[in-house]
Amino acid sequence: MAITTKLLFFSVLLTTFHYGNGVGINYGTLGNNLPSPKRVAQLLQSTLIDKVKIYDTNPEILEAFSNTGIDLIVAVENFRVTNLSSDTAAADQWLSTRVVPFVPATSIVAIAVGNEYLTTDEPDPDALVQAIQNLHAALVARGLDRKIKVTTPHSMAVLATSFPPSSSIFAPKLVPAIDSLLNFLADTNSPFMINAYPYFAYRDNPETVDLQYALLGNSTGIRDPKGYMYTNMLDAQIDAVRSAITALGHGNRSIKIIVSESGWPSKGDSSDIAATKENAKQYNSRLMERAQTSKGTPMKPRDKIEIFVFALFNENKKKGEETERNFGIFNGDGSKVYEVDLSCKFCSNGGSSFGFGEKVGSNVMRGPSVWCVAKPHSDEKVLQDVLDFCCGGGGVDCREIYESGDCFQPDKLLAHASYAMNSYYQMHGRNYWNCDFKGTGLVTFGDPSYGTCRYPQQ
Questions:
Q1: Looking at 60, 63, 122, 261, which residue is catalytic?
Q2: What pLDDT, on a 0 to 100 scale, did the predictor assign at position 87?
């Protein structure tokens, strides 16, 4: 039994951007044949996906993900950056109309200002930094800055050189803006986001780049001059960014790196030998396995890297090459492009796997009964704190998860925390904020009871 004697105040459990062991995914909507946001949100609750990044503030999506326990990263489109940089009032107006109406029911944990903005055709680096600062100031004024972080995703093109990783630096013309941005990220405990695609490196250099090295496979490895050994390109790309941050003098500051996009297309133009279903399946399956571990990179082996897979759907209205429309795990009709395991244990559907085109099984109850369980792949330290609180100061009767109780088995922290969290949730009126627990709680319509273990309900 994992209960300790340490008690925490409930307020401590209501903080911000957490780095658990779940998997993030990018949800683009440039298609005319996609499932409804409500359907998407409903089914993602029964998968290992616990974080979703979108490319705007589509109100239908924000509403659909309310009370799901899935964290959302919303975005400011590139064309809005200049306006939001004008003054704090413009940023506050955007925030008040596009974000505030949906919180806290929808767990919005970050705002991505632009996407690869610094490497667009005509970027205004100063405007980007100012827009980010203005949005943060607006969040501070509303008391939302601890819950919602502000950052911006970059392409690998912000680097002047990326190999070897230990020698990487940022492009000189971008250094002033990135230096200011890094100061801001460190001061606000916000992550540095990078879109990293080994696919493009292999596609453009198939004769010099080993396919398994690009596919996160068991490559023989490449040794950096400083002694770091890389068995896959993604690690090398992440550490290249890390080296560039250090070269600007920020190596001693705490700045998390998040892979905000990474994926592999299943189809491309006739000349593209890299974009195949088999390669996409291998890369994305390995990427999701990697995201669920606490593994770091050769330079920082203990620093877990949070990853957002690109992408949830093939988007048939995206412009550009054929590959741009074929990065999805799912087709527009909801069928899987290739078989990939998105199932998780202790989800509302009991861990079974199904696609967006399939019906929810009879074991998933719909109606007024709701429960609160621990989100799969939550940070174990946070879960332990939640369990301690519920069974201590929270007043929950936890005898059922002691060794002689009906819910002791499985003797796992996730299971014990789920029972305690649900009991607390039911005791306090089943309000959505009673199932937050620092972002580790998940409201579900599926009865998590099993065998003789019965979860309380109102």
A1: 261
A2: 92
| Angle (nearest 5°) at CA 226 between 196 and 256 | 40
CA–CA dist 336, 385 (Å, integer): 38
Answer yes or no: 116 catalytic.
yes
- Say what the pLDDT of residue 104 is: 83
The residue ranges of DSSP E strands in 44-191, in sequence order, are 49-53, 71-76, 108-113, 149-151, 153-155, 159-161, 169-170
Could you give the CA distance from residue 120 to residue 107 in angstroms, rounded to a whole number?
Answer: 30
Q: What would the pLDDT profile of 106-133 be if each residue is shown by its tens digit?
A: 889 999 999 999 999 889 999 999 999 9
Average pLDDT over residues 72-80: 97
Rounded to two decimals, what is the model's pTM?
0.76
**CB of 185 closer than 8 Å to CB of 179:** no
- Choosing from 60, 63, 77, 116, the catalytic residue is 116
The torsion of the CA quartet 88, 90, 91, 94, rounded to 10 degrees, works out to 160
Structure tokens at 393: 């100061």
Q: Where are the alpha helices (DSSP H) in 65-121?
A: 81-86, 88-98
**Lowest-pLDDT range, 44-58, 247-261, 340-354, 394-408?**
340-354
122 is a catalytic site residue: no
Query: What is the SS3 string spanning 387-406?
Result: HHHHHCCCCCCCHHHCCCCC
Alpha-helical (H) ranges within 227-371 are 233-245, 277-291
Q: Is 153 helix (H, G, I), strand (E, B) or coil?
A: strand
